[in-house]
Amino acid sequence: MSTSRLLSLRSGTAVLRLFRPTRGGKEALSVGPRVPARRYIIDMSYSSHFMDYKRTAMPSAMKKLVVTQLSPHFREAVRVQTVPVPTPGNEELLIRNRFVGINASDINYSAGRYDPTVKPPFDAGFEGIGEVVGLGLGASSDYTIGDTVAYFRNGAFAEYTIAPAKECIRVPLVKPEFLTLLVSGATAYIALKRLGDLTKGETVLVTAAAGGTGQFAVQFAKQAGCHVIGTCSTNEKAGFLKSIGCDRPINYKEENLGETLRKEYPKGIDVVYESIGGSILDVAVNCLAQKGRLIVIGFISGYQSASGIPAFKGATLPVKLLQNDYGEAMGKMMRMLAKGELACEVDCGDMAEEGRFSGLESVFRAVDYMYAGKNLGKVVVEVAPAAQGNSKL
Ligand SMILES: NC(=O)c1ccc[n+]([C@@H]2O[C@H](COP(=O)([O-])OP(=O)(O)OC[C@H]3O[C@@H](n4cnc5c(N)ncnc54)[C@H](OP(=O)(O)O)[C@@H]3O)[C@@H](O)[C@H]2O)c1
């Protein structure tokens, strides 16, 4: 059903008829009295949902990445599958993914470490941004075809993804920068706000500082008036860190991190935002000031090992962390981004050996690239080019 047909139904005059589909057909829920002009008519007798692919070449099949066996090695765990494009349910949106975000934890997920009760096959990928190309009737009060949305939900590594409308975030444009906020930015915002207790003049150490989440921790700590130290593995990343306000980038490939911290910060570090684990975590713990705070948001150096992280049931750290303050964090960061107060560095692999991460299959290369420590900013894959004829895209 087309959008224009929906609109004409809504502004027409008729009897309000609602039907509940039942096994034996449809059952009238209510038959209202004759209503005056301009009352809505919701006649669901045609279907429980509608879809409209205005100006979008809508294929019947699509590709998606599916975890077919548990492994922390993404290429081993994940296969490309061709499946029918799914149909959105009543309250859902069908989103044509333009960009998807890569997260260090994509391999924890493919290893089954988040929820050991979930067995393969299951869909991979946590976050995407794109345009609405289909929607259920229940979602049509808030969304229409062509709207641009971002979402944080399993199953993003696909050409099309279904997401509940109420979980989607409306974005003004399909820009990969928005993708940096959903997991990476929100984690830094919430962790530092809830746990950092940052005070002006304090010293903050951020590890993997030039990466997806590190770049935000640097900026939020700086905005709180702190002296910020950031670790990274190249001089190019060190230059980037300076450009976003990091007072002391440390390229740990060229400088000994422990020695540098002890020498330059003899009173210790007040707050550490740590995500690497192993020897870097040891250094961070040893360099903490008295009453210092250590915020461990991950330990990427272990993720590719067989033990990786201990399996844990139910709510995961990211989910727990992101649950309460997520709406506030997203709202605040979107406003900052709009005002030009937040740098959201995106790395689409333009400098990668085989070039830009373009097309769903390049998710594999993008994961390798991150695990080789080559990324500067948030790793993002461009799944599909902009649809023609839509000015928002
Ligand atoms: N708890 C949460 O909610 C949450 C949310 C987002 C991220 N995280 C955690 O934050 C960390 C970073 O995640 P991200 O997605 O934002 O990735 P990222 O920082 O964009 O990329 C990973 C970076 O980690 C650094 N690194 C250092 N040692 C590494 C190693 N042995 N293997 C691979 N990379 C290494 C590399 O930078 P250098 O080479 O410059 O050091 C690399 O570029 C991960 O531990 C992740 O689990 C946690």
TrEMBL record:
UniProt KW keywords: Oxidoreductase
Pfam families per record: ADH_N (PF08240), ADH_zinc_N (PF00107)
InterPro entries referenced in this protein's UniProt entry, alphabetically: ADH-like_C (IPR013149), ADH-like_N (IPR013154), ER (IPR020843), GroES-like_sf (IPR011032), NAD(P)-bd_dom_sf (IPR036291), Quin_OxRdtase/zeta-crystal_CS (IPR002364), Zn-ADH-like_protein (IPR051397)
GO MF annotation list: 15-oxoprostaglandin 13-reductase [NAD(P)+] activity; zinc ion binding
All copies of domain Enoyl reductase (ER), residue ranges: 73-381
GO annotations of cellular component type: mitochondrion
CDD domains: Mgc45594_like
UniProt keyword Ribonucleoprotein, yes or no: no
Signal peptide coordinates: none
Top-rank EC class of the record's enzyme: oxidoreductase
EC numbers on record: 1.3.1.48
Protein origin, superkingdom: Eukaryota
Family, per entry: Belongs to the zinc-containing alcohol dehydrogenase family. Quinone oxidoreductase subfamily.
PANTHER family, per database record: PROSTAGLANDIN REDUCTASE 3, SHORT-CHAIN DEHYDROGENASE/REDUCTASE
Protein known as: 15-oxoprostaglandin 13-reductase
Organism: Neogobius melanostomus
